[in-house]
Amino acid sequence: MKEITELIRKDFLLELRQRYAINGILLYVFSTIFVVQLCFGRVIDDKTWVALFWIILLFAAFNAVSKSFIQENSSRRLYYYMIASPVSVILSKMVYNAFLMVLLGSLSLLLYTVFMGFPAFDMRLFIPAFLLGSIGIAAALTMVSAIASRSGNNAALMAILGFPVVLPLLLILVKASQTALNGPVDDLKILSMLASVLLIDTVVLILAVILFPYLWRD
Amino acid sequence: MIGDDKFFVVIIVMSIIFAGLGFYLFTIDRKLSKIEKKQKELTEKNNAE
Amino acid sequence: MIKGMWWKIAGLVLILYSIIAGLTIDVPALPVIHQTIRNLFYHVSMWFAMFVMLGTSLVFSIKYLSGFKLKDDLMASGAVYTGIFFGTLGLLTGMIWAKFTWGDFWTNDPQLNGAAVSMMAYLAYAILRGSIDEAAMRARISAVYNIFAFMLLVIFLGVLPRLADSSLHPGKGGNSSTMEGLDPTMRLVFYPAALGWILVAFWLLQIHKRKRALIQGVNLNK
Question: What ranges do the domains of chain B cover?
Answer without folding.
Answer: 24-49
